[in-house]
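Sample intake sheet
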Amino acid sequence: MSTWLTQSWYVAGWDHEIDSTPLARTICGVPMMFYRKLDRSVAGMRDACPHRLLPLSMGLREGDSIRCKYHGLKLGPDGVAEEMPLKFEAVNRGICVETYAVVERHRFVWVWIGDKDKADPSLIPDLWPCSAEGWVFDGGYYSVGCDYRLMIDNLMDLTHETYVHAGSIGQQEILEAPLECSVEGERVCLSRWMPGIEAPPFWRGALKKPGLVDRWQICEFVLPSAVMIDVGVAPVGAGATIEQHDQGVRGIVVDFMTPESETSHHYFWGMARDFDIEDAGFTARFKAQQAGVFAEDRELLEAQQAAIIANPDRKLSAYRIDEGGVRARQIIARKMRASHSRGEKETA
């Protein structure tokens, strides 16, 4: 039994990652490949030729089709054979490769893991700030050598910022502010309100003015593996509250963890913001800065995964600060048990 949910949409790649040249990516334990057809829509199929299993991502594009680089079997974007290796041989259309439901939305290319006839695009998580008017969104990608749930734990526990990200977004006040955790259906929300404090370096630069600020962090876990974090600062006295906070500078950190294996995942990260949205230079600089912050997380989590493997007789402990991650794991586990009891397949 795997550690991830099926019958779900996962991010396969950024819109700019997938082009006419096939992109190979293992998702939920399955080798897949993706490429853009001539109309720029995305095709997704298993990355294994049905003949000798050579990765099709090594193949040659011909129109919307792909030809295996080993013996020349040609497959259409629907995965069905179009030409056999021997040109005089009749095409056997029973030869085919598995294809996947793919949707492009919110700057991401999504792939459905599970029964293809259940692939409902309305189930794609509502990453609204990534497409909303008055916001700008960009981000990047890391391959991370740890269980995807460790990254969810990390993102639902921002107390680590004080120590891991001390030079950018961390500060002692994070440890002093009370936490509020709530569960609504299959979502977990963890919030922290920090009134009348000094802004950390990044937020001071974003606000562009001196003085004390009110700061907020609101982490939301969304199935199957997304965390959205509403963050920002507003000048003291501007009227911002934990419920309504558009008076200063605000961002929504978007994180999507797509399982690769039991001990590795694809980490798609970014931030949508409602300030300086016309400043392309700032967007590029901030993306580089955010990449540095998340690289610090990656280093930490890969070391944690190695320690988990090296200490099989030990289990992770959970303190008060871990409530958000614990609740998220409980929802994943409960959903997996329900799926298992219905006899749905656990891997794609």
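Comment: The mean pLDDT is 92. The chain has two domains: 8-121, 134-341.
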